[in-house]
Design a protein that fits this description.
- It is a single chain.
- The protein has one domain.
- It is built from 3 helices and no strands.
- The termini are far apart.
- Helix 1 runs antiparallel to helix 2 and helix 2 runs antiparallel to helix 3.
- By secondary structure, the chain is an all-alpha fold.
- The radius of gyration is 21 Å and the shape is elongated.
- It is about 60% helix and about 0% strand.
């Protein structure tokens, strides 16, 4: 129950940060949301009540599934790349918190 609540809080915080205007907050939101997805994937594997998959004496039906762990490892690498890309955009880009619409020189008929 605690793990489900933790995943829910992380998803809510990540979505809130994704909806913010600043690109740095968006990058942090992607990181928080990826943590929630990683916890969900690890929970889906069920390693808490299963044995290790490395011994030859275990029955294959009772060992933990290594596929969710591989998914989490892949998700960590992808999240790192996306976070680095978003932070590079935040550093290189101009101020994204402007409230004034820039002048374009176009005239509109009213």
């Amino acid at each position: 129950m605690i793990l489900a609540l933790t995943i829910g809080v992380l998803v809510a915080g990540g979505v809130y940060l994704l909806l913010q205007r600043s690109l740095v907050r968006l990058a942090i939101g992607v990181g928080v949301l990826s943590h929630a997805v990683n916890l969900f994937l690890l929970t889906a594997g069920g390693p808490a009540y299963r044995g290790e998959a490395l011994t030859n004496r275990m029955d294959p039906a009772t060992v933990a599934d290594p596929l969710p762990q591989a998914f989490v490892l892949t998700a960590i690498v992808i999240t790192l790349a996306v976070t680095i890309f978003l932070l590079a955009l935040a550093v290189i880009g101009r101020n994204d918190d402007t409230w004034r619409i820039p002048e374009t020189g176009e005239e509109h008929d009213r």
